[in-house]
Amino acid sequence: MRKPLNVPYKIYLSENEIPTKWYNVRADMKNKPAPLLNPGTLKPLTHDELLPVFCDELVRQELDNDTAYVDIPAEIQDFYKMYRPSPLIHATYLERALDTPAHIFYKFEGNNTSGSHKLNSAIAQAYYAKKQGLTGITTETGAGQWGTALSMACAYFDLDCKVYMVKVSYEQKPFRREVMRTYGASVTPSPSMDTAIGRKINAEHPGTTGSLGCAISEAVEVATGTEGYRYVLGSVLNQVLLHQSVIGLETKAACEKYGIEPDIIIGCAGGGSNLGGLISPFMGEKLRGEKDYRFIAVEPASCPSLTRGKYAYDFCDTGMVCPMAKMYTLGHDFIPSANHAGGLRYHGMSPVLSQLYDDGLMEAKSVEQTAVFEAAEKFARVEGILPAPESAHAIRAAVDEALKCKEIGEEKTIIFGLTGTGYFDMTAYEAFNDGKMTDYIPTDADLQRGFDSLPKVDL
Amino acid sequence: MRKPLNVPYKIYLSENEIPTKWYNVRADMKNKPAPLLNPGTLKPLTHDELLPVFCDELVRQELDNDTAYVDIPAEIQDFYKMYRPSPLIHATYLERALDTPAHIFYKFEGNNTSGSHKLNSAIAQAYYAKKQGLTGITTETGAGQWGTALSMACAYFDLDCKVYMVKVSYEQKPFRREVMRTYGASVTPSPSMDTAIGRKINAEHPGTTGSLGCAISEAVEVATGTEGYRYVLGSVLNQVLLHQSVIGLETKAACEKYGIEPDIIIGCAGGGSNLGGLISPFMGEKLRGEKDYRFIAVEPASCPSLTRGKYAYDFCDTGMVCPMAKMYTLGHDFIPSANHAGGLRYHGMSPVLSQLYDDGLMEAKSVEQTAVFEAAEKFARVEGILPAPESAHAIRAAVDEALKCKEIGEEKTIIFGLTGTGYFDMTAYEAFNDGKMTDYIPTDADLQRGFDSLPKVDL
Question: Less crowded by CB within 10 Å, the N or C end of chain B?
Answer without folding.
Answer: N
